[in-house]
Amino acid sequence: MKNFLLYLLVALTFSSFAQDENHLNCSKRDRFSNHQLKSASLSVAQIAETERYNVHFYALDVKMNNISTTLQGTVEIHATANEFLDSALFELFQSFTINQITVNGIPSNYSRVLSAIKVKVSASAGSSFVLKIDYAGTPPTAQTNPLGGSGMTNDFSPSWGNQVTWSLSEPFSAYEWWPCKQSLTDKADSCSVKITVPDSCKAGSNGRLEQVVPLGNGTTRYEWRHRHPIDYYLISVAVAKYVEYNVYANPVGSAGPVLIQNFIYDNPQTLPFFQADIDETAAFLELYATLFGPYPFQDEKYGHCMAPISGGMEHQTMTTQGFFEKKLTTHELCHQWWGDNVTCASWADIWLNEGFASYGEYLMLENLYPGQQVQHMTDVHTSVMGSPDGSVYVLDSLNEGRIFDGRLSYDKGSGIIHTLRYLINDDGIFFHGLTEFQNAFKDTSATGAQFRDFMANYTGIDLSPFFNEWYYGEGFPTYSARWNTVGTDLLLELTHTASMPSVTPTFTNPIDVRFTRLGQTDTTIRFSISSNLDQFMVPNVGNVTNLTLIDPNNWVINKIGTKVHDVNFFLGLDESSDATVSIHPNPFDALVTVEIPSSLVVDKLLIYDASGRKVGSKAISGSATIDVSQLPANETYLFVLTHQDRVVHTAKLVK
Question: Which long-range contacts (CB under 8 A, 24 or more apart) does 484-488 make?
Fold first, then answer.
């Protein structure tokens, strides 16, 4: 199985990969692998026009079926003017016919340039208005809209024999099937989705199914209502011959059981085949509620609508999913916190959606399938290191192929969250910080920088170096080690090279090193890294026999270079590490003066004789005069200043 599991699927033409709908082998990155795509629907000036008003409520009322994408209906956009508004601009693909647009119930004139619709509105700042668009037509395909064509799809499931019509609007395709404002930072407060379908079909969408109304003409209307803030791309519809299968979760923090409502293909083999996997969704939801805080939509539901896609899309409260497998299901469910409750404020920060949902897979394995998470993270790291470059932050946020790059947004995105957890070094603080972030940004959007600043404030750790190197930076380190023992003390030199030194030459995250010791258990020591070459003197480690592993628990995306036991390493510590430090006189007699500038932090002075035996140790925090009268004369000594076991300065003096 490919180590990048796709979860937010789009289809250029789904028939092109329908034979593999039950395998995780297709993704948004596959769709855009051969060309650089831009959103051509609106200009920068037109986008600015849409920001002149805020959306509060969307009401969709559409007629659909399961054998084509053609639809007709109305959409209401309830909004408030941010300034005096003479016109309001929204998007609808040009293939649709507009029968009428009303403003506050009164027919209004409008202009149309391709997909940009501008309606005459006379609204003062702070006043509310309602646009109602009566429209009909057929959504575009990849052929009729090469820059999108995924908003609405109809296809046949080769595995189960079902015909399905479903929507998938992320990132820029909502306007391909309904009139809307496509802005990540302007969530509607709520939405209503009414779907009229043939009596033989069911229709799934967001929120609660409040009513199923037989219309007596061979059609039935499914009336869904979602009473939580929602971004435009998370509103969804799915129509097919479904059976409904429901289970319940009992997560911590919920007032009662949470409904997990599933619309499964109606043929008799499908539900028995997936039932155990569907049932497990309850355990996954309960797990994430303990890690990230209460399920955000507990008063409504979670659920799934099946569609013939090789993965899933995290539509709010009701994921569209091709099949059921624990990593796929947990990825989409995790999005209800990371992507739906808190949404990336720009596609440049898709990491907040995809990185965390991908890390949700690891957390599921760690907690519910202990042991399986080890190989999972190894596979993630291997994927990332398949190429030396690339940042998690998306520089070209209109390039859909880059937004959904599996190696960077998904794999490296999840890998650096794992490293952040290691850096914080306290799971209680780490997970409580994630929960508090969810609370602070609930129902809104956030950037990666806002997450950085929030967690830095919460943990008291300066996370700027970490984000500069791992989020905005590129590449990964390759570590090498040289070590020796001096008595029971360990001398270690850690070096690293970067795969993209022109962009990110140094990685300053700490790193673990594991040693074997004669007659004792192995020991793992965490070393703080400040440069591409760091030396450490660790006292009283014992009789070290080997350096076995660098990063033994795979917390950091990295490769390993060389590990060398160098018996001459001690003799190599003969050059001053900091020219601002002075240890004198040389030769010395009974006293030695150590002059340390106030800008340099040290905590210990170690003294070794020429054989490597430690003959002196003293806590020191600044300049001082040390009594060394007890040291034998006519010998050479190594004076070592350290801070947290890192070698800061060395000097050889003769007595």
Answer: 484/565, 484/566, 484/567, 484/568, 484/569, 484/570, 484/612, 485/541, 485/543, 485/544, 485/612, 486/570, 486/608, 486/612, 486/613, 486/614, 487/612, 487/613, 487/614, 488/539, 488/540, 488/541, 488/542, 488/543
> Amino acid identity of 108?
S
pTM equals: 0.88
Whether 254 has a pLDDT exceeding 90, the answer reads: no
Residues forming a β-bridge with 480: 495
* Mean pLDDT computed over 214-223: 97
Residues 328 and 345: their CA atoms lie apart, in Å, by: 24
Tokens of 64: 């659909």
Closest CA to 197 of 227, 230, 154: 154
Distance CA 168, CA 319 (A): 10
Q: CA-CA distance, 474 to 463, in Å (whole number)?
A: 16
- 69: tokens are 């994408």
Strand, helix or coil at 452? Answer: helix
CATH 2.60.40.1730 location in the chain: 38-240
The domain defined by 477-572 folds into Immunoglobulin-like (2.60.40)
Q: Is 530 helix (H, G, I), strand (E, B) or coil?
A: coil
Q: Which residues contact 232 (CB under 8 A, 6 or more apart)?
A: 58, 169, 174, 180, 181, 182, 183, 188
CATH architecture of 38-240: Sandwich (2.60)
| Omega prior to 294 cis, within 30 of 0 | no
Mean of pLDDT values over 175-188: 97
- The CA distance from 480 to 513, in Å, is 11
**Residue with tokens 């929960």, as numbered in its chain:** 435
Considering only 347-351, 464-468, 623-627, which range has the smallest mean pLDDT? Answer: 623-627
Whole-angstrom Cα distance, residue 578 to residue 18? 64
Q: Do residues 494 and 477 make contact, with C-beta atoms less than 8 angstroms apart?
A: no
Task: For residue 636, give Cα distances in angstroms to 139, 420, 481, 625.
Answer: 84, 44, 27, 19
Q: What is the pLDDT of residues 475-523, one digit of tens each?
A: 999 999 999 988 788 889 999 999 999 999 999 999 999 999 988 888 9
Q: Where in the chain is the domain with CATH 2.60.40.1840?
A: 477-572
- Asked whether the CA dihedral 449, 451, 453, 459 is positive or negative, the reply is negative
Distance, CA of 478 to CA of 372 (rounded, Å): 25
What are the backbone dihedrals phi and psi of residue 251, each rounded to the nearest 5 degrees, phi first? -75, 155
626: nearest Cα among 597, 579, 588, 587? 588
**Hey, is 223 helix, strand or coil?**
strand
pLDDT mean over 197-202: 98
Q: What Cα–Cα distance (Å) separates residue 370 from each residue in 362, 416, 554?
A: 10, 21, 15
Count of Cβ atoms closer than 10 Å to residue 173 Cβ: 26
Distances (CA, A) of 102 to 47, 58, 63, 121, 618: 22, 15, 20, 10, 83
The pLDDT tens digits of the residues spanning 404-426 come to: 999 999 999 999 999 999 999 99
Answer whether residue 35 shows pLDDT above 90: no
Q: Which CATH architecture has domain 582-654?
A: Sandwich (2.60)
CA separation for the pair 87, 112 (Å, rounded): 12
Classify residue 496 by its DSSP letter. Answer: E
d(CA 90, CA 80): 14
pLDDT in tens, 60-87: 999 999 999 999 999 999 999 999 999 9
